[in-house]
Design goal:
mainly beta, three-stranded antiparallel β-sheet, 6% helix
Length: 88
């Protein structure tokens, strides 16, 4: 699988517990032998450590590509520490 164009968007600002909802999307090119795609993305801090993980899943025809997206909740302080997203 080839992952590109990863982007995030805050959906709901910090709640009373310090959590925020965000959406994340990525373009996935399916070069596997299965149409059912399961991709783990890790949020990496500035020191290179994984501090959060999300999963994108869906059906992508063999040899095709598609943008997959999901929504997740995370503590806002933690979210602000994510310097980049990458495939796990």
């Amino acid at each position: 699988m080839k992952v590109s164009d990863i982007a995030t968007k805050v959906i709901e600002e910090e709640d009373d517990f310090g959590d925020t909802s965000f959406a994340i999307k990525a373009r996935i090119e399916n070069d596997s032998e299965d149409e059912d795609v399961y991709i783990e993305l890790q949020g990496i801090d500035s020191d290179g450590f994984e501090i959060h993980e999300v999963v994108l899943s869906g059906k992508i025809p063999l040899g095709g590509s598609r943008v997959l997206t999901t929504k997740d909740d995370v503590n806002m302080k933690l979210f602000d520490q994510i310097a980049m997203w990458q495939q796990k």
